[in-house]
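Feature request disguised as a bug report, sorry. It would help if multi-protein outputs had a clear separator. Right now it looks like this:
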Amino acid sequence: MTMNFSPPNLIGAQSAHVGANPYLDRFSSARAAGTVIMYEYKNLKPKKKLKEIIKVLMPEKKTFLKFPYKFKYNIKDRCVVCGSQKVWESGDTMRPPLPLHKVRKGYPMRGTYCNKHASIHKQYEMLEQQILAEEHGLSFSAYIPSAKSLNPVNLVTSSPMTTLKQADMQSLSAMGWTIKPPNNAIENKEEELFRLIIETNNINERVKTLLTEGVNVVNVETVGE
């Protein structure tokens, strides 16, 4: 049986749809242009997986006598890994961030990721979040909101208010609410002064709001006989 392999047309190709080359190893196959795949790790430990997938996403370099010296696909709208041309729309949810020349850090490059390597980059981000969660004693599922937590009924958990701040009273008074402190059976002069100050401030806030909204004030003159 003869198996034919056609290399992708990198220049001008929006996405390279080619079959996997059976002669490539795991690493080279993951870096080559092709359809979207889920990268299968060789290692089992998370930190070794992270090093492995970062190595897959490293930008391709030019070589001279087997010595790398310069990035090969550092061009706008070209995948920095395989060289496929890809123009991302601004509203595309799968649009990857700007590639960094060391994946996790470094300076941003002029190129981008193709569909295949954008999917692998998303896989890398999820693995990084999983490692971060495990370092802090959390499970990775804590980062994924459940349908129950997104239910608006469950989001309303506030209890009745028993205390008000000065800003709360001013805001409610400006909307037209009348706020009075609780009446004491025996009120001394200091308590009466405090109550009157609060009521006066609330009335002033309401007056300011009415004047700001442009209420027409009509002067009524009393004409004596």
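(second protein starts here, but nothing in the output says so)
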Amino acid sequence: MVKVSALIIFLALIVSCSVTYQGPNQRIVDKFEVSDGQLLLVVRPIKVDYTDYSTASCSADDCIIMRTWFVYEANVLDVLSGEFNEQEITFANMQHSYYVDEYTQNWYVLLREFDEQSTIDKLRVRYYVIQHESTFNGN
């Protein structure tokens, strides 16, 4: 019984290390060009909500919008660029569908503030993703 318990604890530690943030991955950080007023964060989402709101448009009457805003609430694991002092952040990302959890475990997001007050009011967030990367996709 002691051996089984020790094995379970050992495996739990290995699994937790694989998703624990261990500092910035420089290969990923180098992919970003951060401008003034933008935030480069490493986050781990707590909650994601689909919205039926899209700022994408098309001219055809029979057009189907394939991307909408998803709103994320996330823990901030690291602030790599910009001024941000909170432990949580809420932001929007324009995407087609939900991402798998593994993709967003240690998610690098470059955020910018929305310009249009109507979008801020509709989504109830100040920031949106302009670029994102993850260690999950081989980085």
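Even a blank line would do. Unrelated, but nice: The CA atoms of residues 24 and 78 lie 8 Å apart.
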